[in-house]
Amino acid sequence: MEGGWSWGWGKRTRRLSRLRQVAMVVGLVGHLGESYDEWVHQPIVSNEGPRFFESDFWEFLTLTVWWAIPTIWLPVVCWCISMSIRMGHTLSEIGLLFSNVWLYQCIVFILLKKKKKYNLYRGNTIHYLIHGFHHKHPMDGLRLVFPPAATAILCFPFWNLVRIFATPSTTPAIFGGSLFGYVMYDITHYYLHHGKPSNDVSKHLKRYHLNHHFCIQDKGFGVTSSMWDKVFGTLPPQKTTQDCK
Ligand SMILES: [Zn+2]
Ligand SMILES: [Zn+2]
Q1: Which ligand lies nearest to the CA atom of residue 229 in the structure?
Q2: pTM: predicted TM-score of the whole model, two decimal places
Q3: I need a surface site. Which of 95, 135, 206, 210 has the fewest CB within 10 A?
Q4: How far apart are CA 185 and CA 178, in angstroms?
Q5: Residues 6+ apart with CB under 8 A from 2
Q6: Distance 121 CA to ligand 1 centre (A)
Q7: pLDDT tens for each residue of 212-240
């Protein structure tokens, strides 16, 4: 009986220490308090970033090659379209429903623009995981796109949210449109950091985004276009977008 108790206790201690290990490395940024904001906006330009978690499992979930995004999510987008077609929608109707590809950018934009006071432990940690890490290590190619495991989790509440406003047959197409918007956003973002733009549009977008990282970090949040910056009044000054390297 005593042996059973001590075995149980040992198991619980091991589990607690494992949890502490998982939270330890990422949790450090929370202790920066008010100096977090200044610290996170001083980029380290290297292709490698620090380890997030001591646990190999959690660490693995934070690393994503860019091509995993279209490989995993485009089939889901196709499945969504086919589902709405099977429920009686024509291709032109699907095109109309699909036109909400901008919705994902709008949601991200609102989240990024909502600048919080980063003086709380939890606030710093959440910001670091969602956006701050990318500002600290903008060229870390394995942590540039959103981890599929996290996207998969977020898909459930988003699907249910769409279902509230849409009919059963339009829900898949609307959801698929937003998912497609996300895929475009993520791979464009990767390209702007690691690709070599050859035409004027992509050169402009790259300059626009790098200005957001290295010049004015509270302006120019747009990635695939500056449309939402115009809508929300965060367009950087023209001079900056031309001069800042
Ligand atoms: Zn970026
Ligand atoms: Zn940013």
Answers
A1: 2
A2: 0.84
A3: 95
A4: 10
A5: none
A6: 24
A7: 999 988 889 888 888 888 888 889 987 65
